[in-house]
Design goal:
mainly alpha; two-stranded antiparallel sheet
């Protein structure tokens, strides 16, 4: 979208194809990704990469990843996964890939599981939305907070935060949930954008992953 606005799509095509090629070379034999080339796969990194490659494929780029291999491996791992976080990410990957899965059954199991954080709750709500299931999105409002500038963010104020569980990540998920809901909360969305811009201290966000997520 940024490239379209700045009318530089031709130059970007070369860069995008180079990045796709680099990602293809760095995947594991199962078609997933870890921190480094050929390292043990990570579900959240794999989800991040596969979402990007799926979008690239939809835009007409040749991505080269084997959808069936990834899908078969995920379905096999999903059946015996113990971690709620892993299950949520696996199901999101499968949904991203358009896999034929009994999502309501898996989601029903997650509804009865003990969620360890606000981040997992938001992941579950987003997954329900993607699967067109009934979900009470107003649950999110319970975790609403406001900055001194009047901007809106979502956080549980846990003692420990991490790369994937923090105010920015939770606000990004809440943003997607509220935007997908037809409740007419445009003002809240702008306040959430305001919060994200507040976090751009010293001209940048914390890391490239966070920057990519916010810009998206």
């Amino acid at each position: 979208a940024i490239d379209e606005y700045q009318e530089r799509s031709a130059k970007s095509d070369k860069k995008i194809n180079a990045l796709i090629n680099k990602l293809s070379k760095s995947s594991t034999p199962k078609g997933l990704w870890g921190w480094w080339e050929q390292s043990t796969h990570s579900w959240w990194i794999s989800l991040h990469v596969l979402e990007a490659l799926t979008q690239a494929r939809e835009m007409g780029y040749k991505t080269g990843f084997d959808k069936s291999t990834v899908t078969d491996y995920l379905l096999w791992k999903l059946s015996d996964a113990n971690s709620v976080g892993d299950k949520l990410r696996m199901l999101k990957v499968l949904k991203t890939l358009g896999a034929n899965v009994n999502y309501p059954a898996f989601i029903n199991d997650l509804d009865t599981a003990k969620l360890s954080s606000l981040h997992q709750l938001l992941q579950l709500i987003e997954l329900k939305q993607l699967c067109k299931l009934n979900v009470a999105t107003d649950t999110v409002q319970h975790y609403a907070n406001y900055t001194m500038m009047g901007n809106l963010y979502f956080d549980q104020h846990e003692r420990e935060s991490s790369l994937l569980n923090n105010a920015i990540e939770n606000t990004l998920l809440a943003y997607k949930i509220i935007r997908a809901d037809s409740s007419g909360r445009e003002a809240d969305l702008w306040k959430m954008i305001g919060f994200l811009l507040e976090q751009k201290r010293q001209g940048h966000w914390a890391n490239t992953y966070q920057s990519a997520r916010i810009i998206e």
